[in-house]
Amino acid sequence: MELRCYESVVVFVPELEDPQLEEEVNWVKGLLEGGGAQLVTLESWGKRRLAYEIEERREGHYFLFRFRASGAMVDELERNYRLRGSIIRYLTVRLKERECKRPQETPRPGSEVEEESVGHQY
Fold first, then answer.
1. How many whole angstroms separate alpha carbon 86 and alpha carbon 20?
2. Could you say which of 3.30.160.340, 2.102.10.10, 3.30.70.60, 3.40.50.720 is the CATH number of the domain covering 4-95?
3. Which pTM value belongs to this model?
4. What pLDDT, on a 0 to 100 scale, did the predictor assign at position 93?
5. Are 61 and 70 contacting, i.e. CB atoms less than 8 angstroms apart?
6. Alpha-carbon gap, residue 70 to 37, rounded angstroms
C-alpha cells in the first residue's frame, strides 16, 4: 500500500482551553498513527476569525496536519472528523510529493539551497 502525502486543516471550536485543545490535537495524532500514517508536520495557526459564521461561532482554533497515509486512512480520518463535536470544519487535500517536506526543508526561490537540490529525486 502506497503512502501519499496529504495536508489537513482542522478548525476546532473556540471554547476549548489549552489543555482540551492539546487533548484534541493528540486525538488526531492518535488517529493518524493508529491508522498507519506518518505525521510529517503539525502547525498551530492559533485562534482566528472565521470567514463566515459557522454554528453561531465567529472564531476557531486552526491546526495544520501534514502526513503520509493511504487513501483509505484519509477516508477514515474524515469520517472521525465528522463525528467529533469539537471540530467545526476541516479540509484534507492530497499534495504533490515535493510539497510534503518539513517547512525548513523547503527551499526558497532563488536561494543557494535550491540550486544544490537540483539532483534530488522526488
1. 10
2. 3.30.70.60
3. 0.78
4. 94
5. no
6. 7
